[in-house]
Design brief:
By secondary structure, the chain is mostly beta strands. It has one helix and 21 strands. Strands 1, 4, 7, 8, 9, 11, 12, 15 and 19 form a nine-stranded mixed β-sheet that branches. A five-stranded antiparallel β-sheet has the order 5-6-10-14-13, with no helix packed on it.
């Protein structure tokens, strides 16, 4: 993420006095709760939008890094705290739901997204995965093998080709001879309600997919 420019970044808060911060190019409204962070990204240059604890402790650690030419045109990119849940039956939400906008944006190359999470107690790092809900209500699951997890800082990273609402979720460990709940299936050692609900499976290679599926543009598809 180092070296990517931050262009016309600003923090939008519910109400309050807005002040300029000079050469930093940042304007902020003095208010305790952040509702949205935004960044005007020049498509040919790319950029990084991130939220710190000083901005908002709930969203702290959320970021999106956009490489040059990933966007089709210059775009104001946003990170918003969502009140919705991405967890499905049997899954446990472990952090805020972060909406990346504009929703439905078509990306030409993967962007890096980081999400904050907190283990409530008893969850193993290997049971973590991420879920995305797109604007149409469809789900995509990013399983453990395609994630970068920093348990000490409570930050999870992933690559994605779409903007939507993302959250960190935990399932129950499973293995040969073990069974999952009626609304769950066992995948990569974790019981999850996501795959039982027909969720698309995110991938880094064909090894991350099930059966005859292959990895195409970061998503497992039927290989025929």
């Amino acid at each position: 993420m180092v070296g990517l420019p931050r262009v016309a970044s600003k923090l939008k808060l519910a109400v309050g006095l807005c002040v300029g911060l000079g050469a930093a190019g940042l304007s902020a409204c003095i208010q305790p709760t952040l509702t949205q962070a935004s960044l005007r990204v020049v498509a040919s240059v790319g950029g990084t939008l991130s939220v710190t604890a000083a901005n908002d402790p709930t969203l702290a650690g959320a970021s999106v890094t956009i490489p040059p030419e990933a966007l089709a045109q210059d775009t104001t990119v946003t990170l918003t705290l969502s009140a919705a849940s991405v967890a499905l039956p049997g899954d446990q939400s472990l952090g805020p739901v972060v909406s990346v906008g504009p929703p439905g944006t078509v990306l030409r190359a993967p962007v890096t997204l980081t999400l904050p999470f907190a283990l409530d107690g008893g969850e193993a790092a290997a049971s973590l995965f991420a879920l995305e809900v797109d604007p149409a209500g469809g789900h995509e699951l990013f399983q453990h093998s395609v994630l970068a997890i920093d348990q000490s800082s409570g930050i999870l990273g992933l690559l994605t080709l779409s903007f939507g609402s993302y959250g960190v979720v935990a399932g129950t460990a499973c293995g040969p001879g073990s069974s999952c709940g009626t609304s769950q299936v066992c995948c990569a050692g974790v019981c999850s309600g996501a795959l039982a609900s027909g969720v698309n499976l995110g991938c880094g290679s064909d090894l991350d997919c099930l059966g005859r599926e292959t990895c195409d543009a970061g998503v497992c598809v039927d290989g025929g």
